[in-house]
Amino acid sequence: ELTLRVGEFLFGKEKVFRFDMSEYMHEDASSILLGRGGDDAGKLGTALESHSEGILLFDEIEKAHHKIFDLFLQMMGSARISLADHRSYNLSKFFIVCTSNIGSDVLADMKSPSEVRMERAVFSRLFDHFRTELIGRFDEKIIFMPLSTNSLRTIAKLNIEKVLSDYETHHGYQLEIDPLAIEFLVRHGCNPRFGARPMKQTIIKQIANAVRGVLKQGN
Question: Beta-strand (E) ranges in 26-118?
Fold first, then answer.
């Protein structure tokens, strides 16, 4: 989410290219990214053919096959990438961002740890999974700490505002949320292992159930 907002600020929404690395779990998956030659430029080539700058976002990088990691050594070492069709692209005006959930299970099991201890635990798992050579190519390695209750409440309110706005725009309903309901949604929309990720769907489901209940009573 942070990468999307930064990309939108720097380049605009159309120049953030997200690659779901769970699609690259198999050894031959590089052909999906780099193409198979001929008219097939692959997903990366499709993005680079029409843009010379932006953000390449590789989401959940740890899910990719380890051979895919060799591509990142080339991309970040020489700021170039050669595709299966033998075309080469300059990446010097691109940011390369990788996200990972590595270490999140460790953090979820810790009881009131310090930030230093959490960082050490995550970096330990990071170096166990990736080659030191690859990790060293990244200029910044940012660890996101577990969200505070205030942060979760803010995220919940933003999602609630969006849902209520949609109800008013598409259905003509003007709805208000009781503060106690917000606390309920915060509790049920947060998972210790997944953070605020389930929040949006929880809010959509609970508000929809409440609206259906009111409409049913009205009928």
Answer: 54-59, 80-82, 88-90, 94-98
* Token digits of residue 130: 């990736």
- Rounded CA-CA distance 4/15 in Å is 10
Which has the closest alpha carbon to 134: 50, 49, 74?
A: 74
By the 8 A CB rule, do 152 and 198 touch?
no
Summarize pLDDT for 28-86 with one digit per residue, the tens.
888 889 888 778 889 999 999 989 999 999 999 999 998 898 889 889 988 999 888 88
Buried-exposed string 46-78: b where 16+ CB fall within 10 A, e elsewhere: ebbeebeebbbbbbebbbbeeebbebbeebbee
Q: Answer yes or no: are the C-beta atoms of 94 and 56 closer than 8 Å.
A: yes
| CB of 48 closer than 8 Å to CB of 96 | no
